[in-house]
Amino acid sequence: MQTELLARCFFRFDRWIGAAAFGSGNINDTWRIEFEKNGVIEVWLLQRLNHRVFRDPAAVMRNIQLVCEHLAEGDYPFTVVAPVAALDGRFLQNDKEGNYWRVFPFLENTFTPGNLTNAEIAYEGARAYGAFARALRNFPAASLEETIPGFHDTDRRWETFLKVLEENPSGRADTSKAEIAAMFAAKPLFDRISHLKQSGALPQRVTHNDTKAGNVLFDSNTRKALAVIDLDTVMPGTILSDFGDMVRTFAPDRPEDDPGSVTLRSDILEALQRGFLEQTGDFLTSSEKENLLPGAAWITGEQALRFLTDWLAGDTYYKIRYPEHNLVRTRNQLALFREILGIVEG
Ligand code: GN1
Ligand code: MG
Predict the structure, then answer these.
(1) Which domains does the chain have, with CATH numbers?
(2) Pairing with 51, which of 40, 87, 270, 286 sits 20 to 30 Å away (CA)?
(3) What separation in Å is there between the alpha carbon of 245 and the centre of ligand 1?
């Protein structure tokens, strides 16, 4: 019922058909909605933006608008999936509880790869994320707002981790000693990236910041990349994190919350490097290119840190489907971190 009322803020239609939960995001909630208008069935995506995570929803939408306009103007070779304005002209609508809602086009006949991609899909995905970075390479990063302050500031995330560890609000610290020790072992790599950032060797760019396998839409018939989606975290940042999140999500042989032992598939890693550098190789600096792989270790370690912090905090950030979900995620990401670090250190 609520979904229908919200849909009516965005569209005039004759008959409501229904809404079904859609996707597997850890933060926002999405529904595939259907209605009939003038005898034609229309399908859209209705999404509730998590405003505990995105404290300034309007700023998120401003960033997305600016980026979508820029992408649509240039020679970006992929589809731009821009939010839809409501009947009152605004991109966000509020419900009675003060939640924020928005609508995106639903692209029929598409799929997002799970993590069990093959090299061809990985290459295509990396080309799409590379083309995204390429299209935005001259866009003024400073004109975007930092919608989640310190999103990839690992030093700051480390401070939060130490604080939660000390306060131990969930009482779980004693039962996760091995994971905590493994986290401390990742600190030298975090420090290495932090020094690199502080040295000015990494230019500030417009980055996507959630370049997971699930955020590229593919055409089901051609199996070619069609669109980069989920622009919520587009912010100023370093290219290392966008390359890193691709490696973190495309290259392992199992999902980030699989309890089994994870391995990195080297053919996928090679396909990601090839596809990404094909689009970005001519404008990235040499220190960016040299640090793409350490960047992948960094972002995977940081993800482990984020999951472990949330586990210790008592599951306040990520959606969980069972009590130990964040701990299982932590172990998986720590193992993947060690795999990537092994390649970095040769
Ligand atoms: C969150 O909700 P989703 O799946 O798009 C998170 C990402 C993490 C990811 C891990 C705003 O993304 O940073 O990498 O979970 N988004 C935010 O699965 O924190
Ligand atoms: Mg996301």
Answers:
(1) 2-106 (3.30.200.20), 119-344 (3.90.1200.10)
(2) 87
(3) 10
